[in-house]
Design brief:
Elements (H helix, E strand, L loop, with lengths): L4 H24 L3 H9 L6 H5 L41 E2 L4 E2 L15 H5 L1 H7 L6 E6 L5 E4 L9 H4 L7 E8 L2 E6 L10 H12 L8 E3 L6
Parallel strand pairs: 6-7
Antiparallel strand pairs: 1-2, 3-4, 3-5, 5-6
């Protein structure tokens, strides 16, 4: 029996050497995520869980529309164009699935809005049960920033007022009451955006944590 021991020992040594080489190859081929899990030790989550971590939202960069040529120069004819400082009052912020102002107060009309609100969003108006119709004009820039105003007034305050006649990625009307968005459309005479801009706005709202499932959408015109 003794004469077989050296052969057995040599066989075992060969197996051990092969195993070490295999382990070395496996370690050197770890993916970055696997290495991170390995280095975190017992506190690490399984690799499957790490892959489920949502990615951060990339900065928005939407194409834009210019104001129609016939409205160029209207700021010299009595239409208000807001300065950079002035428009901060109209910038939309988000707080717990509500639209808010810069002070964290929910957006709410202070007076009765234009009459066309009832024609545009009849079901939502009935749900609100308030004579403040809540119709507001809005624009969105290429980065997904929103500005909104309940103060639309013919020949004085238009969609073009909010960004001083600058290009927009979306424009239209919203119906808002106590910070809740009930409806949205793409109605804007100054920019005449196609209906597809509504999807852009909804994508931004969704990224901000807003529930967009029950919002009434009304489209004007065609995408083509």
């Amino acid at each position: 029996m003794i004469k077989y021991i050296p052969k057995t020992l040599a066989f075992l040594l060969r197996i051990s050497a092969f195993h070490l080489i295999f382990v070395a190859i496996q370690v050197s081929n770890f993916s970055l995520q696997a290495q991170e899990v390995f280095e975190l030790g017992s506190s690490a989550k399984p690799l499957k869980k790490m892959r489920e971590i949502p990615k951060r939202y990339e900065p928005f960069k939407f194409p834009t529309l210019k104001v129609l040529q016939k409205y160029e120069g209207e700021q010299h004819q009595g239409v208000l164009y807001l300065s950079t400082t002035q428009r901060e009052k109209y910038r939309v912020h988000f707080c717990e699935q509500r639209l808010c102002d810069r002070h964290g107060q929910v957006l709410n009309p202070k007076h009765k809005g234009p009459k066309q609100a009832l024609a545009s969003f009849p079901v939502q108006q009935k749900e609100i049960g308030n004579d403040q119709q809540g119709l507001a004009i809005f624009v969105m820039d290429a980065q997904g920033e929103l500005w909104l105003s309940f103060e639309a007034k013919a020949k004085y305050f238009h969609h073009s007022s909010l960004l001083a006649g600058g290009p927009v990625a979306a424009a239209g009307e919203m119906i808002v009451f106590q910070g809740k968005l009930y409806g949205i459309n793409n109605q804007s005479g100054h920019y005449q955006p196609p209906p597809l801009v509504i999807k852009r706005v909804l994508s931004v709202l969704h990224a901000k944590g807003m529930d967009t499932q029950d919002i009434l959408i009304k489209k004007f015109g065609s995408d083509f």
